[in-house]
Specification:
It contains 35 helices and two strands. It is an all-alpha fold and 584 residues long. A hairpin with a 5-residue loop joins strand 1 and strand 2. It comes from Sorghum bicolor (Sorghum).
């Protein structure tokens, strides 16, 4: 029957005439009896009828309104999942698109729009009700997978509703909860879903030329940012996530008032502390640092940023979130106008990650600390995180250096803090840990790219450390890749030709490289093959002719190895080898 409705134009009109009967005789009793299968089938049928003939529905007759009323009831119907409500979304989108697509110059659009504004207003209420946080088996607030998927599928429809109602009416609808801010029983579920609905239509709202009063958001931000850690239960952190999305989306408006900056930063600091809301709040922090740099530079606000950065030593965030936070703070500090304050602030930010890395170095001095494997593993993890944060700082500084925001003096100071720490790590036994060695190499590469010519004085030591560590830990391909990055950056300069050749000779002497003489070995060590061919490719592309001639025998041998590796079963290794052969 549903297929017939879709394929034959005359059938929708016939079915539409029967909608009042279907609604009264079939749907309403099914809703009263909670007969989910019947409700789902009727909802699907009515949606197909409506989608097949949106023009008939848009005429707004009694039959059409009976159809929309029936589907509104289906959306609002509560069940263990969201399949029934979700099955109606395409109908509502098609109807909204039809109404919005009516020629704007005709009076018909305004008439139809006025007729259906109450319908879509009621639809928004029903969607907000169904999209509220659920509770798990223990009664704790949660957003299960089904609800997450339902919310993801709502974005297009919420945008359509916003366009139909108009941005001011949409926002007024969301903010019309009548919440009592003096009460201790704020309905956080209702607040959270409305913030979610606000963040979903951010682009549409921002494009509207109307002015909006977002003071209610700041009321909630002040309430949330003043909560103690004990008060921040699971429910509130879900609320933090939605508010974080809103702050990130509307940061330009919210940060336009200087008085808002401190509570917004405190809010982000609280939300970052829990995994549920850390990503949304770290992105919100980045947007605030980008959109309100002059206000961020107030001493009290800078202290909040340092407090946030120092709190990351606990290691309870995702690495991606930590990097986002450090990049945001680096962006804010790089635009500080007073040079000495900028220098000391960036140095302080770098040092906030220093202690975690320094602790792992101290273990070399006191071997008894290794006797506790759990504590040692935790120390390694915190050190890796600290190094990734340092890498994020230098990575972001590269842009600031290019734009002239950060001058040479500051770069030299920061490099003077970082390199001694990395050198100690390179010479420590901890480099056998693959995660730590990768983090060290990443920090080194980021520092090299941002420091530019200031890095040249360290090149002999850097290449020595990379070569020595590769000979010690030959499965750690990060040393090869980082050496290749150094050659890419400095290999074109004649004065470093001899250094590049020595590095090539040392790396090629490794037994793991010598063993790359069969496709079987290449299949066993694909990462090593890719790193080795990447290094040799950079050597050929970036080094002076004299260096290439001096290494001709090594290059010939590397070409032979690449020919062997190109026959490997491992796709990545074979492609890397063939890529090298094409440039050789």
């Amino acid at each position: 029957m549903i297929e017939l409705v879709s394929q034959h134009q005359e059938i929708p009109e016939a079915f539409l005439s029967k909608t009042p009967y279907i609604r009264e005789v079939l749907l309403l009793p099914a809703l009263a009896n909670r007969s989910e299968k019947i409700i789902a089938g009727l909802a699907c049928l009515m949606c197909e009828v409506g989608q097949a003939a949106p023009a008939l529905v848009a005429e707004g007759g009694g039959q059409a309104l009976a159809l929309t009323d029936g589907l509104l009831r289906c959306v609002a119907f509560t069940s263990e999942d969201w399949e029934i409500a979700e099955s109606t979304l395409q109908f509502w989108c098609s109807l909204a698109h039809f109404i919005l697509g009516i020629d704007v110059k005709t009076a018909k659009r305004n008439v139809v729009r006025e007729l259906f504004v109450p319908v879509f207003s009621s639809l928004l209420d029903a969607l907000l009700f169904r999209a509220q946080m659920d509770t798990d088996s223990d009664g704790a607030p949660c957003i299960p997978e089904g609800l997450t998927q339902f919310r993801m599928n709502l974005e297009e429809l919420l945008i359509d509703i916003c366009l139909l109602l108009g941005a001011p009416a949409y926002i007024n609808k969301l903010f019309s909860g009548g919440w009592d801010f003096s009460s201790q029983t704020i309905p956080w579920k209702e607040v959270e879903v409305r913030m979610y609905a606000l963040s979903m239509v951010a682009d549409t709202i921002l494009q509207d030329e109307s002015s909006f009063d977002f003071s209610i958001i700041m009321h909630f931000v002040n309430i949330l940012s003043s909560r103690t850690p004990v008060e921040l239960n699971g429910s509130l952190f879900l609320v933090y996530k939605s508010f974080g999305d809103v702050i990130g989306s509307y940061s330009k408006w919210l940060s336009s008032s200087q008085s808002n900056i401190k509570p917004l930063l405190l809010f982000c600091a609280s939300g970052i502390s829990k995994s549920i809301s850390s990503n949304a709040c770290s992105l919100a922090l980045r947007k605030l640092c980008e959109d309100a740099p002059s206000f961020i530079h107030e001493p009290q606000n800078l202290e909040i940023l340092f407090w946030i950065s120092e709190g990351m030593n606990k290691g309870n965030l995702q690495l991606e979130d930590e990097e986002e936070i450090i990049s945001a703070i680096t962006h804010a500090l790089s635009s500080v106008s007073e040079k000495e304050l900028k220098k000391s602030s960036l140095a302080r930010l770098l040092c906030s990650s220093y202690s975690a890395v320094e602790k792992i170095i101290d273990i070399d001095r006191d071997q008894s600390l290794r006797q506790n494997p759990a504590a040692y593993t935790q120390s390694l993890d915190l050190a890796v995180r600290g190094l990734y944060r340092m890498s994020a700082l230098f990575h972001h500084l590269a842009t600031s250096v290019t734009s002239g925001l950060v001058d040479d003096d500051i770069i030299i100071v920061l490099l003077g803090i970082l390199w001694p720490l990395l050198e100690k790590l390179f010479r420590s036994s901890h480099m056998e840990n693959v995660n730590l060695s990768a983090a060290v190499c990443r920090s080194l590469s980021s520092a090299m790219h941002s420091c530019g010519h200031h890095f040249h004085i360290l090149l002999p030591k850097v290449m020595e450390c990379l070569s020595a560590n590769f000979l010690l830990f030959q499965r750690h391909d990060c040393f090869l890749r980082t050496a290749a990055n150094v050659i890419e950056e400095f290999g074109h300069k004649e004065e470093y030709g001899a250094l590049c050749v020595r590095t090539f000779e040392t790396l090629s002497s490794a037994s793991s490289i010598s063993a790359l003489n069969s496709s079987y070995t290449c299949d066993q060590e694909p990462d090593l093959v890719e790193a080795y061919t990447y290094f040799t490719s950079m050597f050929i592309r970036c080094c002076q002719k004299e260096a290439i001639v001096a290494s001709s025998s090594l290059l010939e041998l590397s070409f032979q190895k690449a020919a062997i590796c190109s026959t490997a079963m491992h796709r990545g290794a074979a492609l890397a080898a063939m890529s090298y052969m094409s440039c050789a």
